[in-house]
Amino acid sequence: MRYVILRDDDTNAFTSVEHLERLYRPFLDRGLPVNLATIPNVSTEVICPDGKREGFLRFANGKTQTHRAIGDNPALVRYLKESSGYHIIQHGYDHGYHEFESGNQEDISRRLREGARLLTEAGLPRSRTFVAPYDRFSRVSLQETARHFDVISSGWFELGRLPYGWWPEYSLKKAFRRPHWKVGATRLLTHPGCLLSYHRPCSSMLDEIKKAVAGRKLTVLVTHWWEYFRGNHPDDAFIEVLHQTAAWLASQPEIKVIAFDDLIESQSSISVV
Question: 2-265: which CATH architecture?
């Protein structure tokens, strides 16, 4: 059996119910879980290195406050709670650019705690999985995050940013070319890049997904909901590839789509190597 976890990043107070419903109804109707990496208190001032605002902020509709908590969108929260199949995981605190590259342990701890508080105060379940914005950690933030979460999902891990005590496990991961590894009780998962992305051609996207899944016992597929709605109209071709992915995953008896929580609760019955 091979396992797939679908991770959609950047759900926040400006995300609309209509966008998520358009993208993920084919998954939910097939009983395929969707993990939404959710920003607890999204910043409206995130600027990327190219000088442009983050892509998901085009849906802020001119809001001038510097932050919006997820609970400020009650329609979205209600939809997430009422729609079976969505799983909420914590995505940073406010998605500030490289906010978890800080070496300030007190600030990192505050962001983790405050983010968790805002999610639970909105009525969403406590997340046991963490995703850092831009997949960037410092040595301090990795160690602190592992104290709070059972799973850390990232694109990669760098030796120079790891706590020194993690180096032996990381060396084994590299030696055996494992995409996933563990430190103590914390699972550290990597993904094969954002295979569902507007930066990739639609014509080959599903084939690349199939190759990635075939090469791993557990594959984390990462996408971003706002990429499907970049212009004034939905990117229908891109959305169709996402829906084809749902149909393909559901049709494969040797593939099981799971949530991060399923991995945690399975103990050792689901292999992560």
Answer: Alpha-Beta Barrel (3.20)
